[in-house]
Design a protein that fits this description.
alpha+beta; 285 residues; elongated; six-stranded antiparallel beta sheet
Length: 285
């Protein structure tokens, strides 16, 4: 009997969570003629791969909570709404920056976003939101905007993460920022060696951005924060010992590592307190 009561309790809790998740999304007639055609709310970290396959790794790395989906139909036209709830606002910020590319903004949407006629990507607090226009018809853009703003209105905005201040503004290319916290988010920036070489997997975060040097050349700068100076030194030692074979060491010490890649560009890793300050694709060092 106790087992059955516990089971019923768990089922009730899950049902309530699903109902709350569904109520969180705009319903039928959010705009004239648009009806809810389908909903699904039970994608979690255990089954996200079934929905987005390989792309799930990035969400899981940042810290994924749940995915709620709703589809709307008006005649032959269909819109999709996908709401990815992340564990923290920083996690949602990281996913958004990885997915948004070059941002194209609309004055009509009241949250950070990028838009085209096929898809709106929106960041709000701990939510990464996709509004999908399956046909790409421009006639659906007003409905997409209304759907976006109705959803945004119910989510309290978060402050911009402090991590954005880890890199200097001077010379930074606006919109190039990327947050890293593991091998999947790092792989689009650089390969230093085996997975885990930068010690990101224990929830150490870093931020990367593109910069323009005084001579007009460009380079990438990445700063990673560790719990203390000892951990930063330990990671730098590990990089020294396990640096990828395609990277030739030029200079190394307890506080700095200089290397050259196969394109004759240089990289510098410096320990600065509990940070590793990394510059990549340099013409000279």
């Amino acid at each position: 009997m106790n087992y059955m009561r516990k089971l019923l309790y768990v089922v009730c809790i899950l049902y309530c969570q699903i109902s709350l998740a569904e109520d969180f999304l705009p319903g039928s007639n959010f705009a004239e003629g648009w009806e809810v055609s389908w909903s699904r709310v039970h994608y979690t970290s255990s089954n996200l791969h079934k929905y987005i396959n390989g792309a799930a790794d990035l969400f899981l790395e940042f810290g994924f909570d749940s995915l709620t989906i709703r589809r709307y139909q008006k005649g032959e036209e269909e819109l999709g709404l996908e709401v990815y709830k992340m564990k923290t606002p920083l996690a949602a910020y990281g996913v958004y920056l990885m997915k948004c590319g070059r941002e194209v903004s609309s004055e009509d949407i009241s949250a950070r976003h990028t838009v085209n006629r096929f898809q709106f990507l929106i960041l709000r607090d701990r939510y990464f939101i996709q509004v999908i226009n399956y046909s790409g018809s421009k006639e659906n853009l007003d409905a997409m905007t209304l759907l976006s703003n109705m959803l945004i209105k119910g989510i309290k905005p978060a402050e911009e993460p402090e991590i954005l201040n880890w890199l200097p503004q001077k010379g930074r290319t606006a919109g190039s920022e990327r947050i890293v916290c593991g091998k999947y988010s790092l792989q689009s920036i650089y390969r230093f060696g085996p997975p885990g070489i930068l010690g990101l997997e224990n929830r150490n975060y870093g931020i990367a951005a593109e910069y323009k040097a005084a001579d007009g050349s460009t380079f990438t700068r990445l700063r990673i924060k560790y719990p203390d100076e000892h951990k930063a030194a330990e990671i730098l030692t590990g990089i020294n010992q396990n640096l990828d074979l395609s990277l030739a060491k030029i200079k190394s010490s307890n506080d700095v590592l200089v290397f050259q890649d196969d394109k004759k560009k240089y990289g510098i890793i410096e320990k600065n307190g509990n940070f590793l300050d990394i510059r990549l694709h340099l013409k000279r060092y």
